[in-house]
Amino acid sequence: MGGLPIQNSSSVISLQSQKDQRSETVASGPDSKPRKKICCACPETKKLRDECIVEHGEAACGKWIEAHRKCLRAEGFNV
């Protein structure tokens, strides 16, 4: 019989329980990672920002750039 002794099974359950508790606190915290990729977040502001930069240059589009950054921050990105 090459299995683990029965007395160790309670410690395995205890470790699993601790792992579950940690993952719940990470997922529910306000600083949890965004669920989308940054390239897919805020498509409306991204489009307006990109069009403005192509037509007028980056210096003239600060309003749209900041609007896109604000949207990304609301999605959980640190920009």
Descriptive account of the structure:
It contains three helices and no strands. It has a domain at 36-79: CytochromE C oxidase copper chaperone (Helix Hairpins), CATH 1.10.287.1130. The chain has helices at 9-28, 43-56, 62-74. It has 79 residues and is mainly α. Pfam families: COX17 (PF05051).
Question: In brief, what are we looking at here?
Answer:
This protein is mostly helical and 79 residues long. Helices cover 59% and strands 0% of the residues.
What distinguishing features does this structure have?
79 residues, mainly alpha, Helix Hairpins, 59% helix
List the helices and strands and how they pair.
Elements lengths: L8 H20 L14 H14 L5 H13 L5
Helix pairs in contact: 2-3
Family: Belongs to the COX17 family.
Keywords: Chaperone, Copper, Disulfide bond, Metal-binding, Mitochondrion
Protein name: Cytochrome c oxidase copper chaperone 2
CATH topology of the domain at 36-79: Helix Hairpins
Low-confidence parts, pLDDT < 50 over ≥5 residues? 8-29
End-to-end Cα distance: 56 Å
Mean pLDDT: 76
CATH superfamily of the domain at 36-79: CytochromE C oxidase copper chaperone
How much helical structure, as a percent, in the residues? 55-70%
- Biggest sheet architecture: none
Number of helices: 3
Q: In sequence order, what are the helices and strands, one letter per element?
A: HHH
Strand fraction equals under 5%
Secondary-structure-based class equals mainly alpha
Query: Globular, elongated, flat, extended or rod-shaped: what is the shape?
Result: elongated
Radius of gyration: 23 Å
Q: What is the name of the CATH architecture of the domain at 36-79?
A: Orthogonal Bundle
Please give the number of β-strands.
Answer: 0
Protein name: Cytochrome c oxidase copper chaperone 2
Biased composition (Polar residues): 1-18
Keywords: Chaperone, Copper, Disulfide bond, Metal-binding, Mitochondrion
Family: Belongs to the COX17 family.
